[in-house]
Amino acid sequence: MLASAEGSFQIFYRPETRFGSIWVLPWLIIRPLEQQTMAKRTMKKAIWVLWSVCISVFSSTVFSAQVEGDVLIRNVNVVATQTLTIAPNMDVLIRGERILKIGHKLEATAKKTLDGDKRYLMPGLIDSHTHLSGIPGMTFQQMQKNVEVVKQAMRQIPRSYLYHGFTTVVDLHSDTELIGRWNAQETRPEAHFCGAAPIIDGYPMSFMPKSIRYRFTPYFLLEQESDYKNIDASAHTPKAVVTRMRERGAVCVKTHHETGFSGKENLPVPSEQLIQSLVSEAHEQGLKVVLHANSQAAQKFGLQTSVDAFVHGMWHWSGEQQEKITDSIQALVKESVANKFSLQPTFQVLYGERDLHNPDYLSQAELAKVLP
After folding, report:
1. 126-354 adopts what CATH topology?
2. CA 85/CA 96 separation, integer angstroms
3. pLDDT tens figures, 44-56
4. Are 10 and 191 in contact (CB under 8 A)?
5. Which of 29, 141, 237, 293 is the Cys-Cys partner for 33 at CB 3.0 to 4.6 Å?
6. Cα(309)–Cα(138) distance, rounded to whole angstroms?
7. Would you kindly state where each structural domain of the chain is located, as residue ranges?
8. In this predicted model, what pLDDT tens digit does every residue of 255-265 receive, in sequence order?
9. What is the pTM (predicted TM-score) of this model?
């Protein structure tokens, strides 16, 4: 793990430059990047973006730069993704957990010298929407019945993130213990988490067995007038859950507006007053709030409650099936833009839904290197 005064990063090597789609929320990017602009800058300033972000480089093996003594990477093309520029034939000198120098033909020696062979050195990618405790495509019950498959998948998933260039991930529904187990693995990207604060027994809690839902989602919310008399309401106010998740290391808050799908319909959704209080408390404690909002109604709700970002695109429109964008949808999108809302479109979810119905999906040659 390498670190500058403003952040941390890790160096990995991999053989090719194939990436999936990703949307990185601007407030999840490490602060020094926010201070950069897209205006014209010198190449030197563009390169120093590397001081504050994760780095990955392409080579023939997976390697962690956690070695004693200096590491010198020669002859690499340094990519400054914030300005979309490349500095060719550069050398990078690393000492301990710091990048000391970046330049042409550095006069330096190191305990370990690597020939970049004109490959590309670039900031590591950040996947700001993951669910690290689950297996894509599997329900909780299926995971319980296929223990060996789950074990192999859990071993492979961290390696797959690294293989595709992701050195930082954010789990939007997790807690200290789960993230701690993930980060205890020797080979994995660095993980952080959001505390999930859904309305009790709404989405996603209703999709979990009752035997685990309250333990797996400890930051659920109760409305002021609640029928759950056996639950300590004072522990599930916006202030209480935000305070608890922040103390346990959460980097953001996730809440939900979802009426249901796949046979579970008419689920409870939180009131505007409850989420407005959640947003106010989160902002008071320095956390942003993301809203699961894949419908027109949900994104309208998000605007009314002043959350910071929408998770998912507007897949479900109000009324009958529409073939064209309606005036109401256009107005909603314009209002979101005017209020500078961030968006995670999560296109891959839709591709995943399609792939579940493709009998030849697992036979694709490109999956051979990442399947358990």
Report:
1. TIM Barrel (3.20.20)
2. 27
3. 332 223 323 333 3
4. no
5. 29
6. 27
7. 2-123, 126-354
8. 999 999 888 99
9. 0.76
